[in-house]
Hints:
Blueprint: H1 2-25, E1 40-41, E2 56-61, E3 72-74, E4 77-84, E5 87-94, E6 100-108, E7 126-128, E8 131-135, E9 140-145, E10 151-156, E11 175-177, E12 180-183, E13 192-196, E14 202-206, E15 220-224, E16 227-234, E17 237-242, E18 248-252, E19 267-269, E20 272-277, E21 282-291, E22 294-303, E23 313-316, E24 319-324, E25 327-332, E26 338-342, E27 348-353, E28 356-361, E29 365-370, E30 378-383, E31 397-399, E32 402-407, E33 410-415
Parallel strand pairs: 1-27
Antiparallel strand pairs: 2-33, 3-4, 4-5, 5-6, 7-8, 8-9, 9-10, 11-12, 12-13, 13-14, 15-16, 16-17, 17-18, 19-20, 20-21, 21-22, 23-24, 24-25, 25-26, 27-28, 28-29, 29-30, 31-32, 32-33
Amino acid sequence: MKQVRSLQKAGLLGLLSVSLCAVAVADDWTQWRGPGRTGVSREVGMLKTWPEGGPKLLWSAKDLGEGHSAPSVAKGRIFGMGVRGEKETVWALDEKTGKEVWSTPIAGTITLEGRQGGYGSRATPTVDGTYVYSLGVGGELVCLESATGKLVWKKNLVSDFGGAVPRWGYSESPLVDGENVIATPGGSTATMVALNKKTGAVAWKSADPQGSTVAYSSAIAADVSGQRQYIQFLTGGVVGLRATDGKQAWHFAAPASRGGINCSTPIFDKGYVFAAAAYGHGGGLAQLTTDAGLMAVKEVYFTKQMQNHHGGMVLVGDYLYGFDNSTLTCLEFKTGKVMWAERSVGKGSVMAADGLLYCRSERGPVALVEANPKEYVEKARFEQPERSNEPSWAYPVISDGKLYLRDQGVLLCYAVK
């Protein structure tokens, strides 16, 4: 009898273990570029290839508004932004059906100096428990209730902090870290700010010593030599600010393009930071060290073979993958050595999950590629349906076994697990 009970207990423990593993590999995508803003999903068990025509399309949502805002996914809801008529709007959809749950207008429309890509929303909403934070193209920073869309508080990066709308609009996705939300107005006295996430009250304002202003990147949070920092790519280079007071700890100028059109989110790993820009520029790696309590920046290398525009890069193991203009390229992260370069789908964006790269062309094709530093191995590809007349700049998103593709007013949901 004891043996039977022991076997039953072992069986229950086994089932529980399997259940826990199943939960562990399904992952929400609560912010820009997912967990840690790395662009790498923690999910496993993904499809290793797709049938002809692509993975199964579960649903498509329409009339979401103009914009390149990639979605975020949390607790059964999908959050995004778009310009509908004369209003820039944050919306929430049901994850299972794609049906709209709520929508909240946050600002009117504005005309940008740079027309390319349209005037629609750029930012990905950030979900933090019961609240969702997002930034309008004209600088309207809002905190909404994630369940209802009700406005909790709002600030404007121009009128409240002296910022100026960039040529192609504010594109930053707000960063939530601890009790604060971090944003980049780009003003002379408030290049970056930290606000209390519950009230919007100012925790600190930081002016950039080099006179840089806001570019098109989104900040990341990192622990650098035991110090919590916010790393952002400004017009004049990559900077690290102390999380406690916003004081600049270091500055790395090499990755910044001459015109300050810097879009890529910095990659940080074990004391090294990489960033890149296009327009004939390239990317650079720096090592961050501490000497007598002061941060030191040592450039490791600079390469012309990662001129990444706005499609981003991902670090998988010891190798960096991203589009060098229109060529998918693999670099050895610590040396800059080019492992391979392939046309793939042409200029686009990339995300990673379970040893695979999800490569999305701005012109329609989507490819599944091995994250393999030895050679380019394409496992499958398909043409995105329901294409708009604009380039598809919204990054692909992997969440809970699904692939999401945003193309202006349309969001497509595919089963990829």
